[in-house]
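Write out the 3D structure for:
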Amino acid sequence: MKHLHRPRLRSAVVHLLLAMLGLPGIHAWAQYSPGIKIPDGYVQVEGDIIMTTNDAAKIRQLLPGAVPKYGYAPSRLWPNRVVPFDFDSGVTAGQKTVFYAAMNAWSNSFPGTMTISFRARSGEAGYVHFIVSDPGFVGGSTSYVGYSGGQVSITIHPSAVATFLIAHEIGHALGLWHEQSRPDRNSFITVNYGNIQSGYSSQFDIKSPQATFGTYDYDSIMHYFACAFSACSSCSCSDSSCRTMTATYSAQQCNIGQQNHLSVMDRRAMAFMYAPSYWKFLYPLSGSSADGSMQQPYTTVAQAAASAPAYSTVWIGAGSFSAAGLTITRPMTLNAAVPDLQLQSDGSLGPSPSGYAVLQ
């Protein structure tokens, strides 16, 4: 047996919901402002997610009352962990360099392991099409969340071509919704509906097909900023009379909506979403078929011992797991998932015993 670490493995399985990104000095938040022009035949589903009415109806069919089990719909993950892409003819060489940097930010989410990759399109029906054009505001938009089987368009205003604004839009195309639409968000933010421009309260609905595996991430690149859709003509994160969201942990109030990096949780979660085939997962999930995937994890150590292939890596979530008398006959590595990303007293994420897993 090789690379087996048994006692007090640290972990907590990562959440899958990973908002706004942009150039230093440019606050490309216009898509989170009231009054932007939505083209005929399109609907603003959630901030910068602007879909055709048909695609919006298709997405909303996935939201019937009960909260689904995952932070993303497995059927909308990109096949074989590969995203074909091309550029609109108007995208310049310099702009392409920025798009490549945004793609690389997600590709390198787990150093040393390729999880999601981007390849120039070669006739694939499903692909991402990058456009630099005026979407009707200074910012970016995405036409679908996840894999659609057809073209997913990401449109960036010429004045907003920035690595992490583009990375945010790519996050949607890869299957991520906004952080504040998590079903547990009311424990971490208060939506100030009285400060929202009339007619825009639905932009704060908990309507994404998602659940959570880890704690709320104020630092996520996928979080709305504090003044999104404010009724005020001028708003700051510290202005309680105008801001539309108040952080439960006050130290995080002006951190939400950061535009300059992928958070550690963002990167870890993306790596788990698009895990290589030799990565398996073990954590409690009611109704799991226990195939070891992130969506259908093993729920007991016995299942992992019996089914995980030789030389696989098993990522273990928080909790106590019975392993008494168990013999593991194949070499495998048992790793903690996110022991370093537990909720701290100020609302940030860091190491904590609450993320440990115990085999006993």
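The longest strand covers residues 82-87.
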